[in-house]
Amino acid sequence: MKDEFAFINMIKPREYKQSTLVMGIGDDAAVYRPSKGMREVICLDTMIEGIHFTKETLSPEQIGQKALAINISDLAAMGAIPRYYLVSVAIPSSWSDTELKAIYQGMSSLSDRYEMDLIGGDTVSAKESLVLTVTAIGQVEEGVEFFRSQAKPGDTIFVTGTIGSSAAGLALLLKHGRSGKYSDSEKQLVILHQEPEPQVIAGRLFASKCTRMALNDISDGLASESHEIAEASGVSLYINEESIPLHNALLDTVDSVSKRVEYALNGGEDFQLIGTVSSTEFDELIKDALKKGIVLTPIGEVREKAEQLVYIVREGSEEPLAKNGYNHFK
Ligand code: ADP
Ligand code: MG
């Protein structure tokens, strides 16, 4: 990249969608008005070339799209409406202007759908790897508090969508790359890894219906996310292995049952939601969700704190489940 200012000018939105925005890109900081009765929700996630993606696993558009999607997913897990985002990019010389532009196009393809505005960021150079950091800002009604500390004994544990597909897609990509020859089912898994859809509609439905819910997005696999809920809530989670919903493409592609389960428990990056809610509320919720085309699947039950935080129930017997989802410091 020759000129930082030309670059900022190129990625600067031509118009903004949010009516509360006062100042977008082009000053020292962005300014927007708070909304009555709403709380601000803010999160940040970083994607690093060589760790979270390579040019072989994601196209430049998909890198941008995914960097924003994983942040929107965190907003969804708080029941929030996405509003704004900021982007910091550290650029090594191995990345062309065309590729950088494509990263931003990937982000705007997603932000257009969620009516989010890009309101700022930072541009710096890097030695070797591209580093992309996105901050997302959303809003949620006063009183909606979907914290992981809110699971209670007797709650139903549920997930949205299907689990494990992203990890299976990544395994394919690591073997054959983006331009590999894939069957239709394999292609579906690859796309689920590359272009995860954040569960905003589900999060907003929960916010409109539920008073208490423990909610997490599944970035690190079911094992890790369920440990976080159990730990924060001081309870134990019992997950029925056979209840975990798997995508047909995963069933088609991966024959080994234990491999499928491993993808679901330890794989991560599905960006679906895992929640716990009172079982009476869940019975209503599952119907309301279906009307919006969202499939909720009950996968287990919250009980009083036991010796271990999470158990997997398999053919009637309960085994402790280790928290070995993907861990950066392992
Ligand atoms: P400052 O020196 O005040 O930090 P900059 O030159 O870094 O200003 O940025 C100018 C404007 O462009 C600011 O509004 C900033 O938020 C925005 N900006 C800079 N880099 C990016 C980027 N990579 N993506 C989006 N907005 C950016
Ligand atoms: Mg700056």
Automatic annotation (TrEMBL):
The protein's GO terms of the molecular function aspect are: ATP binding; magnesium ion binding; thiamine-phosphate kinase activity
Q: Which residues form the PurM-like C-terminal domain?
A: 152-306
Keyword terms = ATP-binding, Kinase, Magnesium, Metal-binding, Nucleotide-binding, Thiamine biosynthesis, Transferase
Q: Which GO terms describe its biological process?
A: thiamine biosynthetic process; thiamine diphosphate biosynthetic process
CDD domains tied to this protein: ThiL (cd02194)
Q: What is its EC number?
A: 2.7.4.16
Q: Which amino acids does the record list as binding Mg(2+) 4?
A: 28, 74
* Pfam families named in the record: AIRS, AIRS_C
Per the record, what are the reactions this protein catalyses? thiamine phosphate + ATP = thiamine diphosphate + ADP
Q: Where is the PurM-like N-terminal domain?
A: 26-140
Q: State which pathway it belongs to.
A: Cofactor biosynthesis; thiamine diphosphate biosynthesis; thiamine diphosphate from thiamine phosphate: step 1/1
Which residues hold substrate? 52, 269, 326
> Any idea which positions bind Mg(2+) 2?
45, 74
Task: Please tell me which top-level EC class this enzyme sits in.
Answer: transferase
Q: Where does Mg(2+) 1 bind?
A: 45, 122
What other facts are recorded? Reaction mechanism of ThiL seems to utilize a direct, inline transfer of the gamma-phosphate of ATP to TMP rather than a phosphorylated enzyme intermediate.
Stated role? Catalyzes the ATP-dependent phosphorylation of thiamine-monophosphate (TMP) to form thiamine-pyrophosphate (TPP), the active form of vitamin B1.
Family assignment? Belongs to the thiamine-monophosphate kinase family.
Name under which the protein is recorded: Thiamine-monophosphate kinase
Q: What's the source species for this entry?
A: Alkalicoccobacillus porphyridii
Its gene is thiL
